[in-house]
Design a protein that fits this description.
InterPro entries: DUF5947
Protein name: HNH endonuclease
Largest sheet: 6 strands, antiparallel
Number of helices: 7
Helix content: 25-40%
Number of strands: 9
Radius of gyration: 17 Å
Structural class: alpha+beta
Strand order of the largest sheet: 4-9-8-5-6-7
Distance between the termini: 36 Å
Number of domains: 2
Order of helices and strands: HEEHEEHEEEHEEHHH
Shape: globular
Low-confidence stretches: 1-21
Mean pLDDT: 85
Strand content: 15-25%
């Protein structure tokens, strides 16, 4: 399986997670944003937008909307079932990845974060279907805006149901801090803090992303 090139707009959307929060404005109306602001996802271009609460309500609640509201909280999936053989069948080259249903592609795709941003990898659908059979909640993920986030790095076996913006945030952290081939201690400390906060609070505080 050959990884596909990063989707257009993916790396550009990471900038908001490596900037200071007070630099961010609503990308729909231009108002300054609080650090704990909502996001909308434009499915046609597969882009994430920072927005104020008014725009989130206005544009995210329209029928057949151009934008989809991104959920707020993540959930640690205690009891999630994935064997080493099932993970290997997904053919992801690193031990951190997220999976979501891409409406435009009409299939589940995987992305894995790295120093260059997010790299997309097409899945063997049979391997994914087997995982869904063992974990029916995966069929309940909202298309485009919710993902299965997998962390199997350094012996971990952690699985989360997450809003897509948290996947962008993790990718932004890795892209900003990764050094050399192994990443370096700063990058791995940031990755560990990210997952600890996600598990404890259901969301990673904005301040932690810039720490």
């Amino acid at each position: 399986m050959t990884p596909a090139a990063p989707t257009r707009g993916w790396v550009a959307r990471l900038r908001q997670f490596v900037r200071k929060a007070d630099d961010i404005q609503c990308e729909l109306c231009g108002l300054p944003l609080l650090s704990d602001h909502p996001h909308l996802f434009e499915t046609a271009k597969r882009q994430l937008f920072c927005c104020c609460r008014a725009c989130a309500l206005l544009f995210g609640s329209q029928q057949n909307a151009r934008y989809r509201p991104v959920p707020r909280d993540a959930h640690y999936l205690d009891g999630f079932r994935m064997s080493d053989a099932q993970w290997d069948a997904l053919a992801i080259p690193i031990d951190i990845a997220f999976f979501f249903h891409d409406s435009a592609a009409q299939r589940v795709v995987a992305l894995y974060p790295g120093p260059a941003g997010g790299t997309q990898s097409l899945l063997e659908l049979r391997a994914w279907d087997e995982l869904v059979a063992d974990n029916p909640l995966l069929a309940q993920l909202q298309p485009d805006v919710e993902a299965l986030l997998v962390n199997r790095s350094e012996g971990a076996r952690d699985y989360y149901r997450v809003p897509i913006d948290q996947c962008y945030a993790l990718t932004g952290v890795i892209r900003a801090r990764w050094r050399g081939l192994s990443g370096g201690r700063e990058a791995w400390d940031s990755i560990h803090r990210f997952f600890a906060a996600l598990r404890a609070h259901g969301r990673v505080p904005e301040g932690l992303l810039h720490a």
